[in-house]
Amino acid sequence: MEAIENLLLLIDSPNLDKELKSIALKVQNNERISFDEGVLLYEKAELGYLGVLANYIREKKHGERTFFNRNFHIEPTNLCVYDCKFCSYSRLIKQRSEGWEYTMDEMLALVFKYDNEPVTEVHIVGGVLPQYDVAFYSELFSKIREHRPELHIKALTPVEYHYIFKKAKIDYATGMKLMFDAGLGSIPGGGAEIFHPEIREQIAKDKCTGEQWLAIHEEWHKLGARSNATMLYGHIEKYWHRVDHMEQLRKLQDKTGGFQTFIPLKFRNQDNQMSHVPEVSVIEDLRNYAIARIYLDNFDHIKAYWAMISRNTAQLSLNFGVDDIDGTLDDTTKIYSMAGAEEQHPAMSTKELVDLIKHVGRQPIERDTLYNVVTDYTNFEFPEEAKPQFYKLPVIN
Ligand code: V47
Ligand code: SF4
Description:
binds iron/sulfur cluster, TIM Barrel
């Protein structure tokens, strides 16, 4: 209830700038803000103001409920035919000695490792290589589904899909239907970067365009399936490129309703070809979460990916529009540790995630990938033996 009181106080404040007051009134009246107003927020609005608006929207949508999940990642390879300038993770094929290329059996072995753990999702994403084609991924998804039907497969981005469908000479609709039938559960948000060609061509040349990224998600949504969306921010883009990016997502969401969550990804500058570009401040991270919450009125969830921004910033973000902090991860992803994120071995036990959320006065809800409630931990007391274990998921259900 505090959130509405804070909004009313802000609106009544005699010193509030006229344009910012008009945006605050729109938020109060549940009205959508325009492209220009989005840019204005980036240019003019202070963190405190943005926090009040975003927190109000978050509370209206979710109350005190804050989501996390129990998941692990598989990164099939860190070799890639592309050469995105911001990517610290990938090695070009000519640097093959520095990379890994998992076989089907190796990937399945990673899935089997979690057979006795209460994970609900496997997130599969990595580099793009010719041997990982339509036949390979269809077989992988089918085998995972056959082995553990209830494990949700969230896999690959339009970057991979565009590449493998083109190679197989099939259109997006046919390709996505094949993946759906093979057992794909949803598409993660990666590969979006910044859609506008002015920026995309400088940082992610050659891979799928913004339009193609959106078209693949659209085909997927037409099957009644869900996906996420990201935005890589805080590098060479201008504020209006960020608003343009969110505008395109908002438009597609109006059309299909298939997106679940928006995940702003902070550019990290270690060991990549953009290391000379400074990282933005934590203030900018929080402003960005808040503006995303305000702009994307038709997205249910805004996620802070804790492995990328650290646990402390993830906690802070919960006061700036965020209602989801992703999952246990169990030290299975290298994308961010290789780019200089604080978490060099990202893993949180269920108890650590629950405590992180409870410590800022919110209600921890374990969700599955589609946001069905798995467990409400609000009044849950962990047994003594379920103390945090960094690399092992405690079985508590
Ligand atoms: O597309 C790569 C980004 C993405 C860097 O859907 C970088 O639930 C910052 O999409 N600095 C992949 N970002 C990760 C991703 C994701 C993560 C968590 C949850 C979900 C979800 C999706 O990582 C890439 C790219 O935008 N990335 N390098 C870097 N140096
Ligand atoms: Fe390859 Fe993805 Fe890295 Fe780009 S971001 S180089 S597509 S792994």
